[in-house]
Structures are given as C-alpha cells and as structure tokens.
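Re: weekly structure request thread

Next one in the queue (460 aa):
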Amino acid sequence: MENLAFGWEEWVALPGLGLPAIKAKVDTGARTSALHAHDIETFGSAAHPKVRFNVHPIAGREDIVITCSAPLVDRREVTSSNGESEQRYVIETKLEVGGQSWPIEVTLTNRAGLTSRMLLGRQALNDHITISATERRLQPDLSYDVYHTAAVRKTAPKRALRIAVLSREDNYSTRRLVDVGEERGHTVEVIDTTRCYMAINAMAPEVHYDGKRLPRYDAVIPRIGASITPYGTAVIRQFETIGTYCVNGSAGITASRDKLHAHQVLASKKIGMPTTAFAASPKDTSNLMGLVGTAPLIVKLLESTQGKGVVLAETKKAAESVIDAFRGLKANFLVQDFVKEAAGEDIRCLVIAGKVVAAMKRTGADGDFRSNLHRGGSAKVVRISKEERDTALRAARAFGLGKAGVDLLRSESGPKVLEVNSSPGFEGIEKATGKDIVGKLYDEIEARVKPQPVRKRKGG
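Done, posted below.
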C-alpha cells in the first residue's frame, strides 16, 4: 500500500454500505471509527447476527437517507471525547480513499449534532498514513452530487434485507419464500397476519405483533388468505403508511378478491373477459341470464376461491335452480358466459414486476370443468401468444399488483381473463415449468429497495 497523507478532514467512501461519498473527521485520540447512524436494529440468527441502520450522509439533509446492513462484529462500550460512555454496535467494512481500500471497524452512534458524519480513529489509520493536523482534504475530493444521480442506485451493494412474509400457512409457497430469501443472505420472517395489531396515529404509525412493535422491514410479501382479506389488507395498509415496500398493495388485493369489483376494474380497462352479470333481486333470474346469453352458464359466489362456489349450469332450468339456491342463502353471486371452446382448460400466467415470468396450461380432472390444481387438475408448460402475454400484463397492472397469477381462457374472440389472483401459489407453476419463480420475485425486491436519487435543492 502506498503512503497516504491525511489532513484533519477527508472525503472517504464506504462502498460496502452504499455510501460513495462522506466527509470524515480524523481523530487520532479515538481508537475506533464511528459512523452517524439512526434506526439501528439487529436481525438475523444468533449465529450470524446482522445490523440494519439508516444514514443521513449529508449534514442538514434529512431527506437523503441510505439504508445499510452489515454483519455484526461486536457490541462494546465506547467513551466519547466528552467522557460519556455508551454501548455501541460494531461492524467491519471497507474504507476507500485515493484509489486504495482496506477493512476498518466502525461503531454506530448518533452524531446528529455534529457536522462530520464520520470519525476516523487510530485503528483505521494504518501505518502507511501520515497525519497533518493543520491541513484538510489532502486526498481527492468527492462530491455529494452522487446522491442526486442514478449512480447511487448503480453503486449500491447487494445488502442483506429484512423481509416479512404475511402468511398463516406453512405450505410450499411460504417455505420457498423463506428458503430462497435465506439462500440469498436475507432474513425472512413469517408473520401470522391475524396476530398483528396496529397503533394508528399520524406521527408514528406502528404494527405490533405478540406484544412487541415489529421492526422496520425492507419489504413485505403478502400472502393473505381469502377468509381474512379485510383484516389482512388493513395490516398491509399500515405497512404502506410506514413507507415499507409491499410487493402487493392493499388496494390491489382488495379489488382483485371481490369478483364483482375485479370484473368492473377489468371492464374499465377494456380487458377481455367472459360476459358477466350481477344482481341481488330475486325477481330478475331470467333477465339476468338473458344478459349473459344462453345456457350453459357459470354461476360463481363472489367470495369463491380455488374453484369452490363455482357451478356449471348446463341448461336454463339448472341455471335457474342454482341461482334460486344461492339467493336462498342470501349469497352474492355473478352469472357468467361459459366459454365452451376452452374445454375445461385455462392458462395461468405468473406476472412479476410487469413481466410474465412463467405460464402453464391447467386442465380439469375428468368430468370437471374447473381446472384448479387444488381440485385434482393437472398442469404443463405452455407457450403463450403475444396477445395473451399483453392481456396478462394489462390485468396485473389494472390492479397495481407486483406479483399476480392471471388466469386466461382461450376463446374464439381472443384471451378472456377469468381471475387475477394476488396470492398465487408457486408449487404448481414451478414444478410445471422448472423455473425459479421465487428467485425472480427476490430479484425485483432487491432492485426496489436500492436507494433512489434525491433531487437537488435550489442553491444547494
């Protein structure tokens, strides 16, 4: 390593933390270096603990915040220059100055009242550095401009994330989300949505769980069951209020779950779907059927999932009987044209971040017009047309869903959207296509939580 000359203040970079430019005060009186950090929280396993924290790299610019995470090296008592002692978390990261870099230990502390966001202690100033206490910035100048350009995203390192999966089930999809996330070095915590409760206030909205405030998550992956949609979406709304990135937003989940609302959204965007009618009046059975067409007809409960509450009425008489039965139960339902040419098959397109990442054809079990895999249907990989791909993407976009299973029927007049599922299962489609769908979801999460450039202030 070449000899470096340091003044009492220098520009440095901590690339491993995503901090490409930060001003540091050199202090030979301090042993360990210190970084201004707030919202400090530990996470990960006891064997491999990590720490997540936020840094305002520019003094006086609270709007510029970089979220960092790093393996935890130690926790030790540090006495500051004014004689005060505090327990601080210690991390190790690379310091980069003048084209050279070397590992240093850094303690995390609140330096909000100090101009320099970092202090460089003796341990960081190795034998090749000479200090000139009367001069400053002897090394090349860096610029805070990097935080105002796209370069801040490009230079951001892949860091360990803390992710919550909202799920009440220990099934293939939930286990895959945990396993794939942890293989990538993230910490993935499964949270039972019904055990969350919320502190709703303007200044500090919080989500609590089992008696404790939940930590700050980098992302939330909702897998909300149909039976708890209203409460589950309220929990997601709370995370949205806090500012956490949610793969699927509360509004999109709510709209897609209510079949009537979902069909109205699709119609408003002129997205093809089977002719559909809805009514709540017991006198309108024949008129309702007339709006849709002739038998056979599909009659669906609005709250149906996995093919339950979906009936094929093959004759006009059968349709009237089913409708009267549903009305007798005071159930909300819709009547839909039966697309005969689909012949008990549909296409499930899995959309992640505006791309169809996989598609499979589902065929119903013998004698069953429903193709749901939960009902004994089978699946195989399928090539979809450009029109089918565009329809699936438009449908997911209509609900603002980052992750969606879009079910299409192949009809003579083009693809028809049957349903948009905000919590699609991964097992059937991963096994049918051999693709790592969950990995693609994590690619999107990792891209989304990178820092965003912040606009410069006038005169700033």
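The domain at 4-154 is CATH 2.40.70.10 (Cathepsin D, subunit A; domain 1). The chain has a mean pLDDT of 88.
Next request, please.
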